Amino acid sequence: MQAVQTYGADYRKPLTQVREYLMVLRSLLHDGEIDFVGEHVTVRARIRTTVHTPLMASASGLHAFELCGEVRDGAISWVAPKSYLVKQALPALRHRAEQAGRPVPPLIAHVPMVVNADRQASRALAREQLAPYAHSATSGGHGRALATTELKAIAMRSWTTSWSLAPRRRW
Predict the structure, then answer these.
(1) Residue 2 CB partners (closer than 8 Å, separation 6+)
(2) What is the dihedral of CA 146, 149, 154, 156, to 10 degrees?
(3) Does the pLDDT value for residue 129 go beyond 90?
(4) 63 pLDDT tier (thresholds 50, 70, 90)
(5) How would you classify the pairing of strands 42-46 and 33-37?
(6) In this predicted model, what pLDDT tens digit does every residue of 68-112 receive, in sequence order?
(7) N or C: which terminus of the chain carries fewer CB neighbours within 10 A?
(8) What is the pLDDT of residue 93?
(9) What are the Cα distances from residue 76, in Å, to 56, 79, 106, 140?
(10) For the range 129-138, what are the long-range contacts, defined as Cβ-Cβ under 8 Å and sequence gap of 24 or more?
(11) How many beta carbons lie within 10 A of that of residue 147, not counting itself?
């Protein structure tokens, strides 16, 4: 597998690996110690001072958004269409959080931006930088390619668009 060669990690079960990793990290940071043997992660560690920081995870596919709703403090997307985030990702996040009896965590949307006084240059740069995502097979793994028209919409209007996908929360 390419992931093994590139990163030294075997991603045959990526959600299991992420679940174990985040569980270990939360226990270590919040409780100060962990003794865990999992399918992918084995850790026995202690820290002197606990750190109660929110733990969020990157998500692109619906199962990853569900995992974030179940066990994390938020999900972070990458170059996903607003329609996908609102109609599919957020409901998956919300559903799993409710099943787990947890508050619905925020969904943080990474939205590419170009800041430049020259609007035409900004649009050209946005199109150039976002072009690879228009041709990707699954655009972030959520099962459908980003349509070129959606990329144009991002490139043309993202600098003026603002939306909230979940209530804001203070940490």
Answers:
(1) none
(2) 160
(3) no
(4) very high
(5) antiparallel
(6) 999 989 999 987 888 899 999 999 999 999 999 999 999 999 887
(7) C
(8) 96
(9) 7, 10, 9, 12
(10) 130/79, 130/154, 130/155, 133/79
(11) 13
Report the candidate in 75, 68, 73, 77 with the shortest Cα–Cα distance to residue 96: 68
The answer to whether 166 and 107 are in contact (CB under 8 A) is yes
**Neighbour-count burial of 171, counting CB atoms closer than 10 A to its CB (0-12 exposed, 13-18 middle, 19+ buried):** exposed
| CA 62 to each of CA 11, 23, 91, 132: distance values in angstroms, whole numbers, following the listed order | 17, 20, 9, 22
Distance, CA of 134 to CA of 41 (rounded, Å): 35
DSSP tally for the chain: helices H, then strands E: 7, 5
CA–CA gap between residue 45 and residue 51 (Å, rounded):
14
User: Model confidence over 22-61: pLDDT tens digits?
Assistant: 999 999 999 999 999 999 889 999 999 999 999 999 998 9
Mean pLDDT of 5-22: 80
